[in-house]
Structure formats: structure tokens, C-alpha cells
Amino acid sequence: MDYNFKEKILSLLFNRFNVSSVAFLNSAELTLPDPISTGIIIDIGDSTTKIVPICRGQIISSAQYSHDIAGNAILEYLVELLENRYKYKFNAEKPGHGLQMARKIKEKFCYVAQNFIEERSDVIGQYVELPNGQLIIMDIERIQCPEILFQPNLIGRNQIKSLPCLIEKVINKCDSIHHDELYTNIILTGGSSYFNGLKERIQKDLSILIPNREIVVKSFPQRKSTWISTAIYDNKRYNWINKKEWRIAHKKSKLTGYI
């Protein structure tokens, strides 16, 4: 985090909200139920998918990986597919209204196929009413959108590997003594990890990729593990910034010209 930005946050929390102390924590680290355990966090949000390995409670920064194929990319791909098929512009009426509708369609009807090639012709169609009253049917789009997590080439991102391959790559960058624990504690988090079938697909593809390795992929039903861990973590484990100490240091910094 940028130093000046951090200082602004601290100033706001201490001076306006009268917070007694602050600790800057990594959300991936807080996803692990046990703060000193080992695991790999797959955080699929709106704009970014992050793969973060944690060994004995410490993030392995040199091994973590992120890319921008996440919720927004899946939404944009869905809009592109439906607009090409039905010649409907999602933002033709009210700005943002159509995209909000598309987001609801994505969340309600899309899921991850266990075998995309085999399931393409077996998708059960779902009728959807568009904002202009037009009735459309979604079939292959239901599995085609989230498939970009496993086949980025569908949206022209040939340089990015599939999610299971990236997980293997990240784990291989960690010390080999942690590999068994990392492969058996793969945790999904983030709002865009809710797709039905995602956990099972990652586990299946990793098992094919590494056939002699035990693989365990986990997910918390409400994806609230970060907030739960924040509430129960050990206060002594993190570097707290105390309001009184910060004000003294802040005053000294001003006097010496560092701020």
C-alpha cells in the first residue's frame, strides 16, 4: 500500500472516527480458518482472480498470481454472447439497467460444466425476459461464460493458463515440504466463486493434471470466512498501529520533514 494513502487512512480512522488502533491485514490471509495453517486461497472477485499460497500463516508473495479474468469479464462475455445472438443492446434503455439485468442472469442461470465439450449439447434451456419485454432462451451461454476461467482462449486470452494449471504453477513455486498441505487445503472465496460446479470442476481438473496427488477443494457456504476470521483472530499476531504512538510518530515526521 502506498505510504501516503496509508497515512490518509490512519488519519481518518484515528482523528475522525476515534479508533484506538489499526492493523492492515491481507484478506487472503484471513480466509484461512486457522491463522497459522497452510493452504492456498483462490479469490475470485469482480475484477481480479487471485491465487495466494499461505504456508504456516505466512503469505508466499513470490509465488502468488493474479489476472483480470473474474466476475466482470464473465459478465462482459455473457453480454457479448447474448447481444450477438439476439441483437439486443443491454444498455439501450437506461444506462446501467441492462447490465444489472445481465448480472442477475449470470448469477441465477450460469454454472460451471464438468466437461464443457460433452455438456454443450445437453444444457437445459432457460427462458429469460429482457428489460424490453423480449423473451429469450439461454442454453449454451449458461456454461460458456464461466468456462473462461478454464479456457481463457474463449475471449482471446491465449497467454493465460486455465485456473487448475495456475494453481499447480503457484504451488510448485512454494517449498516442496508444503505441497501436500497446499493441495489438500484449496479454499475458494470471493463473490464470483459462487458458480455451481466450480469447486468440483477445479478438483476434477487438478486430479487429472496431477493423478497421484490427493486434492481437496473447499468453499464456505456464505463466503464470509474473511469476516469471521477478522472477528476471531489472535490480537497479538499482527502489528497494531496504536493511535497515541501514531500521533507521536506523525508529529516527529512533520518536524523532520518526512511528511
Sum up the structure in keywords.
flat; Actin, Chain A, domain 4; Actin; 10 strands; two-stranded antiparallel ribbon; 259 residues; Actin-like ATPase domain-containing protein; 2 domains; ATPase_NBD
Short recap of the structure:
Helix content is 41%, strand content 14%. The chain is α+β, with helices and mostly antiparallel strands.
Description:
InterPro entries: Actin (IPR004000), ATPase_NBD (IPR043129). It comes from Piromyces finnis. It holds the Pfam family Actin. Belongs to the actin family. This is Actin-like ATPase domain-containing protein. With 259 residues, this protein is of the alpha+beta class. The chain has two domains: 25-68 and 161-232, Nucleotidyltransferase, domain 5; 71-152, Actin, Chain A, domain 4 (Alpha-Beta Complex). The chain has eleven helices and ten strands. It has helices spanning 3-16, 27-31, 71-86, 97-109, 116-119, 141-144, 163-172, 179-183, 198-209, 225-232, 243-256; strands at residues 21-22, 39-44, 49-55, 58-59, 65-67, 126-129, 135-138, 186-189, 217-219, 241-242. The strands form three sheets. Strands 2, 3, 4, 5, 8 and 9 form a six-stranded mixed β-sheet that branches. Strands 1-10 form a two-stranded antiparallel sheet. Strands 6-7 form a two-stranded antiparallel ribbon. Strand 3 (49-55) and strand 4 form a beta hairpin. Helix 3 packs across helix 4 (97-109) and helix 7 crosses helix 9. The protein is flat. The mean pLDDT is 86.
